[in-house]
Amino acid sequence: MSTPAATTYAALGLEHHTAGRMREAVDAYRRHLATDPRNPDVLYNLGLALQNLTQFDEAITCYTQAITLRPTFASPYFNRGNIFAALGRQEEAIASYRRSLELEPDHDRARLHLAHVLGEQGSIDEASEICRQLLDRGQQPRETHEMLLFLEQFRYGQTIASLERLHVEWDRRYAEPQSGRMPPPANDRQPDRPLRLAVVSADLRHHAVAYCVTPILEAINRRDFVLYAYSNRLKADDWQSRLQQRVDHWHDASSWNDDQLARQIRADAIDIVLDLSGHTAGNRLLALAQRPAPVQISWIGYPFPSCVRGIDYHLVDAWLAPDELAAKYRTQLIRLPAGSTAYEVPGAPPAVSPLPARERGYVTFASFNKANKLNAAVIGLWAEVLAAVPNAKLLLKFRGLGDPGTIQRFRRQFALYGIDPLRVDFEGHSEFPQMYARYNTVDIGLDPFPYTGGTTTMLASYMGVPVITWPGETIASRQSFAVLSALGITDTIATSPADYVRIAVELAGDLDRLAELRSRMRPAFQQSNFANGPALAAELEQALRHVWRQWCGGA
Question: How much is the mean pLDDT over the chain?
Answer without folding.
Answer: 95
